[in-house]
Amino acid sequence: MAKIKTTKLLAFLLVLPLLGLGCKGSGTVSKDALAPVTLKYWRVFDEPSDFTDVIAAFKQTYPHINVSVRKLRIEEYEDAIIRALAEGNGPDIISVHAAQLKQYQNLLSPMPQSATLPATIIENNNKRSVMLQTVKLPSSQDLRTAFIDTVATDVMLGGQIYGLPLSVDTMVLYYNRQLLNQANVPAAPRTWEEFKEAVKVLTTQDQNGNIIQSGAALGGARNINRSPDILAALMMQNGTEMTRSGRVAFNEVPASLSSSSVAPGRDALRFYTDFASPAKEVYAWNENLPESLDAFANSQLALFFGYAYHLPLIRSLAPGIDLGITKLPQIAAAGRQVNIANYWFEGVTKQSEHKDEAWGFIQFAASEQGAALFLAKSGKPTALRSLIASQRANPELAPFADQLLTAQNWYHGGNAAAMEEALRTAISQVVAGSLEPDAAIDQAAQNVGLTY
Questions:
Q1: CA dist 279 to 266, 282, 351, 429, 433, Å?
Q2: Residue 88: partners with Cβ closer than 8 Å, 6 or more residues away
Q3: Torsion of CA 239, 306, 367, 59, to 10 degrees
Q4: Which of 208, 289, 295, 418 meets the CB 3.0–4.6 Å disulfide criterion with 301?
């Protein structure tokens, strides 16, 4: 009997790579345990068709588990989940943004140490049998080993793990190659000094000072896509301590700096807003310009900060654009690199009646086998260390993949929307001249602090 169990276990491991984790047989299965189960999986952005191959592979071992993926608009997402859960017919699995764990914590079930579910085993003679298998789920140490660093920080709260990501996006710099050629800019900027010089020659104005072509979408708050992320990236690159001991600290002088006159968060805000000041050489943006993604698609903008999820949007809006993608500029081309991560993780709702099946699916989808299938369809950057090398070999994904090991999400408060609004307000106050950068950054820190 022991020999038979060993054979079955080996066969199972062959069809289910589990981030290096193990699973074990737990006995035979009753008829009830094999009753069909449909997991309701709600998310935003990605298409349900991106999961076709993942689900098909999962069902090879768990043919009785169906996964129904529903894509919702981000504007309706949170309300729809809360309403459905209140009515008792909510989803089993939901996607949660990495900056919103605290906001969704009350809806989520912490990840257990293992999940037990019936698995179909194919033995060497192609005979199928079914037995209960206990799948070990990742520990905090497993997260650090398998995923890039920011994941362990983002998906854990109070010592509990609340989900696993299928991908991690990083901010890059998109550029219009033809506009750079026309301005005699030979290469996309790698540093902020190169960025400033490029913006000066890429921006053109008419005789009345109106911007005809913008070098870069930087300086504004409301019409620049993901402006809070761009500002946060500048702050972090400049040495800002975004939080300290669980409280907001981006307006303070880091303890590591000897001079109290240096405030990296304030200085990053000043640098950012300079691009919206007509008095500055780098003036390139104002509130009268179109939203930055539209401006880039219309060839009114040469340099656009965006994520991998912007790529299909750009191609859809501007199919003829001569598009280039490069890494986010840094303070120096060599040395310390800091990048910003923007991603979602998959968690199980407290209300789910199929938690083991849901965790089993998430575990598989986030594994190297499952994630590779999802990433091949979605075109997203990986969250797994083991897949970075293969994505670096893909010219389109390389700029994103090259940044993964230095990418981080900084916000872990309870209201990401309020945090973003606080940063946008600080930008607007400085651009309008209603507050100096010192006061604006202090007020932003105070407002973001209220969300912790």
A1: 19, 9, 57, 17, 12
A2: 351
A3: 160
A4: 295
Query: Which amino acid is it at 83?
Result: R
Helix or strand run (H / E) with residue 131: strand 128-136
Q: Which of 418, 350, 347 is closest to 43 using CA atoms?
A: 347
In tens, the pLDDT along 416-444 reads 999 999 999 999 999 999 999 999 999 99
Q: Are 155 and 164 in contact (CB under 8 A)?
A: yes
Residue located via tokens 């698609």: 297
330 vs 303: CA distance, rounded Å? 15
User: Are 276 and 431 spatial neighbours (Cβ–Cβ below 8 Å)?
Assistant: yes
Q: Does this model's pTM top 0.85?
A: yes
Q: How far apart are the first and last CA of the chain?
A: 55
Name residue, tokens 């999820």: 309
Residue 441 per-residue DSSP state:
H
What's the pLDDT tens digit per position in 379-413?
999 999 999 999 999 999 999 999 999 999 999 99
Listed residue (419, 428, 418) closest to 219, CA to CA: 428
Question: What is the rounded CA–CA span in Å between residue 263 and residue 252?
Answer: 6
The Cα 319–Cα 339 span in angstroms is 28
Neighbours of 259 (CB within 10 A): 7
Q: Which residues contact 276 (CB under 8 A, 6 or more apart)?
A: 218, 219, 220, 283, 284, 285, 286, 431
Write down the residue that tokens 């990495």 correspond to.
98
Give how far Cα 295 sits from Cα of 117, 216, 233, 284, 328, Å. 51, 10, 22, 12, 19
Please answer whether residues 286 and 280 qualify as being in contact, where contact means their C-beta atoms are separated by less than 8 angstroms. no
The pLDDT tens digits for 295-327 are 999 999 999 999 999 999 999 999 999 999 999
Amino acid present at 89: N
